[in-house]
Design brief:
The protein is mostly helical. It has 9 helices and 2 strands, in the order ααααααααββα. It folds into 2 domains: 52 residues, no CATH class; 140 residues, Lysozyme, CATH 1.10.530.
Length: 217
């Protein structure tokens, strides 16, 4: 074992295997490549020894398999009845997820037909929603739409109109409430904080797509 380390030590200039981690990220890639070659040449007949040096890159956990697009909900009577009674919900579904009940927003983690976030589903949402859903349940089209519909209707009752309810649904009630109070919102760009006096572009476009009316703000 000592002779093995001696070979690596001489080539890489390290006193202890742990010294590898003291190198800067810029220096590490070359060390990894060189150490791999050295270790593989020296202990090719004893692969169990390689892990003892802690020099090989960690195993990366494979991504979860991507879910297939699912639009089977279009034949679901419960969802179709909800849309019949609340036509705006059908439009929200198309804009939110393009009608894919397995849709996932990589940035926010929102899931399902009405793109509900984990925190929204698992915490006290309020606005007439008096129950919670597990994160995995958001892929269930009926549960997702029932939950999203109740939440939207609660927001509409609070704001009094579809436009503001849509803004709050997309941007978050807390964000929009603060915007209405202050007249601006803070956008972070690196270390800079910028005051914006108009709605975020994404939120503005969202409500316009559903209502077909351009927002002034």
């Amino acid at each position: 074992m000592e002779s093995i380390w001696g070979n690596i030590q001489g080539l890489l200039g390290l006193n202890q295997p742990q010294d590898y981690f003291k190198k800067t990220p810029i220096e590490r890639p070359s060390l990894l490549g060189e150490s791999n070659r050295v270790i593989q040449n020296i202990v090719s007949d004893s692969p169990d020894q390689i892990s003892q040096f802690n020099l090989l890159p960690p195993k990366v956990k494979p991504d979860a398999p991507k879910r297939k697009i699912d639009t089977s909900w279009r034949q679901n009577k419960v969802i179709q009845q909800i849309i019949k009674e609340n036509p705006i919900i059908g439009k929200m579904i198309e804009v939110e997820s393009s009608g894919n009940s397995n849709a996932v927003n990589k940035k926010s983690g929102a899931r399902g037909l009405m793109q509900i976030k984990k925190d929204t589903a698992e915490k006290d949402t309020g606005f007439g929603v008096n129950y919670n859903l597990k994160y995995e349940e958001l892929f269930d089209p009926v549960k997702n739409v029932e939950y999203g519909t109740k939440y939207f209707k609660g927001l509409k009752k609070y704001y009094g109109n579809d436009r503001e309810a849509l803004i709050a649904y997309n941007w978050g009630h807390g964000n929009y409430k603060s915007f209405k109070k202050l007249g601006y919102w803070i956008e972070k760009k690196g270390k800079k904080k910028i005051k914006n006096y108009k709605l975020p572009k994404e939120t503005k476009n969202y409500s316009e797509k559903i209502l077909g009316v351009k927002n002034r703000k």
